[in-house]
Amino acid sequence: MPRTRHDRLDCSPGCAVEATLQFIDGKWKGVILWHLLGGTLRFNAIRRLLPSVTQRMLTNQLRELEADGLVARQVYAEVPPKVEYSLTERGRTLAPVLNALKAWGDLHGTVQSDAQVRDAA
């Protein structure tokens, strides 16, 4: 079920952040976009890269990304059907955001206890 989106994003100073996050707020959207930065992928290739995602969830996330204009879906009329996904020009503009998220995750992505955080400070 698609999430309800704001009609206007001028509600507060942080709404530009909220506007950005609403495009990548699905559980798998950021990871899908990250993998598509490397180039065009077929549905099953994406599925292999994300072994924990169900087919239904992956389909829904890809549909939402396509509806938001971030991912392009190319269907080839052949048997069996061939479907490829790639980033649109708009989707490619998220590259710096995704790279920043990866860099942050590389530095802070491990789960630490409160004691470890205090000891590190």
From TrEMBL:
Residues 15-113 form the HTH hxlR-type domain. The keyword DNA-binding applies. It comes from the Bacteria. Coiled coil: none annotated. Keywords: DNA-binding, Transcription, Transcription regulation. This is Winged helix-turn-helix transcriptional regulator. It comes from Roseomonas elaeocarpi.
